[in-house]
Fold each of these.
Amino acid sequence: MSEQTSYYPELSKEILPAKGKLGVLLPGMGAVATTFMAGVFLCRKGLAQPIGSITQMQKIRLGKRTEPRFPVIKEFVPLAEMKDFVFSGWDIFEDDSYQTAVKAGVIPDALLNAAQKDLKTVKPLPAVFDQHYVKKLNGPNVKSAKNKMELAEKLIADIENFKKKNNLSRTVMVWCGSTEIYMKPAKVHQTIDLFEKGLKANSKDIPPSMIYAYAAIKTGTSYANGAPNLSCDVPAIMELAKKHRVPIAGKDFKTGQTLMKTMVAPGLKARMLGMSGWFSTNILGNRDGEVLDDPQSFKSKEVSKSSVLDAILQADLYPELYKELYHKIRIEYYPPRGDAKEGWDNIDIFGWLNMPMQIKINFLCRDSILAAPIVLDLVLFLDLAQRAGLSGIQEWLSFFFKSPMCRPDLEPEHDLFIQHLKLQNTLRILMGEEVLDHSGLDYYEARDASLESTGFEI
Ligand SMILES: NC(=O)c1ccc[n+]([C@@H]2O[C@H](COP(=O)([O-])OP(=O)(O)OC[C@H]3O[C@@H](n4cnc5c(N)ncnc54)[C@H](O)[C@@H]3O)[C@@H](O)[C@H]2O)c1
């Protein structure tokens, strides 16, 4: 065969089987968490399909185009099954997950009724919460302790009890809590030792989301951060994750407007069209929107959303096309819309002879409907990663995040299509399959000149 092959046998993994029950822990049991759980319950009953989930619906091509195989991802890699999930979590409100889902108003009544019995069984445990970090919220279901280390210990005890009570073999945690105020990495975040001292000293630089991440890792629970706050994206937590052999990922689920942005921008750049402005605004009226109405929480979101275009367009490489780009992002809290967000994008581009053109995108989306399958895929892939012996930052999961975590000396990848290739090729590598780069020239040209005499080979 003269075709190009790329295998990474040294990186393929022995993956432990997904035996037993998988505990799914959700700090923050609001709209996203309850929509996710309701969907899982309905899928288990055959009353819904897991639309939007890569693991459940996407088929991955393996092998040459002349003899392709297309297994569904969940059948290609040894993933846990939704029937083996057991849920728990924390929230500052005492409502069970059914009551919360009713208030969130995302799921139509008929489906909600069908999931009612299951949702009612999932009641939030008292949360680790401090209003300093989420100004617009306050609730009664909150733990108290003499310092943050003791709060972490209480969370660790919750996780251990949950494991024991349900005879769980593995646990995964996905932060679905509110967006905390904007914070920059500080000294206390630099090493495990400084972080633990900070927990004992009640450091202001340690918000609740970091305490959950710490507790997760200490109990061997893999952790993903669905919000833009720092949480596990600091050196101390990364080091802890490596030490305890726990996979982590983040941050901020890539759903509505940013999903669109990372689909459209790579296309415009691939065609070398210039861009002078991108204005994004949206209206939403759920509790997330209310939290983001506080300027300090909005700042976390704004930073997470704005890094996307800079990274995709690479103005340093293409100053004539992107140096003057004006990127502005707004979020307006507008209660009548609930979870049915509406996003507007105005994109000012220019082409041949500098001629200006405009693109308008009006996305009438549903926030939690777009986020729920991401939570499902993250749970399944993090569990897979842990069984495959991977630990620390899982950059191949960038596909799911607005602000992907990566090794500090690397630039994050934002282009949705590169992220997708990264994800699929990582699965191929883990399973000892050939990596596909889609170049395709090997179907037309002999790779090795000495083989050309044998004719056209594929
Ligand atoms: N829905 C999307 O499309 C989307 C996309 C990206 C990111 N996110 C993020 O996901 C998170 C959840 O979104 P949502 O729409 O479900 O919001 P939500 O307000 O409905 O739910 C968040 C829940 O977290 C709880 N909470 C806050 N702080 C907590 C703490 N310290 N411990 C435990 N519970 C806590 C709140 O009481 C609330 O019930 C938000 O941070 C949001 O920014 C959502």
Amino acid sequence: MRITFCGSGAGAAVNPRRGASSIHLAHGDAQVLVDTGPGFMERMADSGLEPDSVQDVVFSHLHFDHAMGVVELFTRLIVRRGAPVTVYGPRDTDSYIEAALGFARVNATNEFIRNWLDGVSVVLTRPGDEREIGGIDVRSVEVPHAPYLECLARRFEAGGRSLVYTGDTTYAPDVLVPLADGADVLVHEGFTESCLTRMAEGLSESGRQGLFKGVRGTHSRAESAGQIARDAGVGTLVLTHIMPLERDWELVEEARRAFDGTIVVASDGLSLEI
Ligand SMILES: [Zn+2]
């Protein structure tokens, strides 16, 4: 199984160094996109990957920085060579994809593309779901992230190797330690308090409080990611969903407080054979 980051950034801030969240998984002939942050197609091209070859899309959750690029996937290709994709996602993925297909149909100026769009299918993968996607066994658990939004972490297993992707989550050992138990690679989101301090510079007191509460209440510190990696006994921790003002060495330093295995800070184009 090969994992390639087609976006390692986070949220609404424009980041010249990182695209929003998207991961490409390849296993044999299977090619799966896990989240489609806007702009992911350029990042795929940077890595020599071909969007037309993707058969399946898996969403962790429907925040725009993880999902909105699916509109690009449906709209930007003038001639589709691949078969229509199947989209797997949490609650409301069906209505999200119907809206995305609506955008795409406005642009669809020939029968071939209209037929391709008609062939897109959606499978809701609710918490506890277990299934095979492209020859990869996928297990899903719900993680705490944002109000009203169902957010899923996934464990991918193929050829005796395993990868866990948390999506966006607060520190959630009860669900993430069992999910990541003994995984070869854990891809966990992470932020540092020093980044928050830099982000808060120049804000009003209420702005600072809103920033701190918003990030701390919906995301994980890098040290928390390290704790999950340690308690689950994973081989390698990859930190992702990186905010623009983060410093890689601070992310590693925080995670290292808890985890003494290999720690990698994801970057766009990073590709790992698992
Ligand atoms: Zn999110």
